[in-house]
Amino acid sequence: MRKIIECVPKPFMVGLLIAAGIGAYGWVGESDYQEQIASAERYCEMSAKKLWPPRPELNCPAPEAEPGLHLANL
Asked: Where are the domains of the chain?
């Protein structure tokens, strides 16, 4: 293995390591992005069921108003 590494030019090895680092960074970033989307969808579902309070920064669709006993109806 050592002979193979010694035969490969150093600039190529450095470029290969940099490319691997960029690829790993992109892969981790994509998984964080997908997790954030899933979390926002879950929050929107729970706020639509009125189990969690709505957060205006998520831009969830407004839940439908259900008729019921409200102070305005009294």
From this structure: 22-53
